[in-house]
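Why do we care about 3D structure at all? Because function follows from shape, and shape follows, mostly, from sequence. That is the central idea of this module. The next example makes it concrete: a single protein chain, its amino acid sequence, and then its structure expressed as tokens.
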Amino acid sequence: MSTPSLPPSFLATLPGRYYHAPDIFELEQDRLFQQYWYAFTHVTDVQQPGKYRTAQVGRENVLVVRGNDGELRAFLNVCRHRGTRLCMDEYGETKKNFRCTYHAWTYGLDGGLVAAPHLAKMPDVDRTEWGLKQVWLREYLGYVWVCLADEPPSFEDTVISPVSERFGDAQAVDNWTMPELKVGRRISYDVKANWKVLVENFLECYHCATMHPEFLGVIPEYAEGYAAQYYVGRGVKFGEDVEGFTVDGKGGFGKLPGLTEEQDRQYWGVLINPQFFVSLVPDHVIAHRMFPVSAHRTIVECDWLYAQDVPDEGPELDRSVELFHRVNQQDFAACERCQVNMGSKLYEPGGVLVPHEHQIASAFHDWFTKAFGEP
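And the structure:
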């Protein structure tokens, strides 16, 4: 179908095939997920020596482990001998090494090859060279970030700068002390929708009045439809009678001690392309990490982060988690309803963004078009 002429109020989305075509998704693996910094896991998942986590990043399965020297390292989860996947479990712990179950090639926590059957009879084999393939790794906001590129993009430009630009101050986000928070609750959502549909949903609140009654009960300003959290240096204020960011607006755990008066009783949202978005409120932080599985499916891992003295369970925690859990369920159901029509001939030229959604173009589509290039 031909692209219709758009009135000035409308901006075009990406063409429909970008949301459902397998060949587009395959290109995204190489051009996006294996080239940009990727929010992998929370540091507490790999807190002690020998603790490890595996996850899919693009086409690669990645293994992150804390060494006996206290350092975090990331490797491709691939035995150098015959390509066997080294660790099959998503989470685990080992005392000293990783041993391949096929031919017993064994690697230290630093990735070096430490043993293999008859290795002593192969004196020409460099054990460092034939160790696990290391992956770039950084820590930021309490999360482990990895990058599969041979030469990664600037972490400061692609990860830190979007946060600094959102707050208008490079240090403002530090007031939430995210590296010191704990994961109070983690929920994994299996969403039958393209990852870009989820990003677009996160970037607008045009739908909020229709879909999020509990959210609007805490932040009534969102009833106006604008995603005001994307104005530089501005959060979105709680309602006057709201006590906390909870499902009923009551209680909460009191603001984190580092927050300023200007940051209190407000909601702040930040997107770091391509797959991390974070919501910050006075007493906790909600962090979403997307793991795209196919053109039609995305795993979203959502962490609720709290101060160390917040109880690990109980009705107060449940009420705190329940608010954004409902928002997630409502959003993901809507995204799935979109996804089933991404292949419609009516959507071949794409959809449209009204003025309340124009920030999707500037915050995401412009970045995507430049990073992805031509199909």
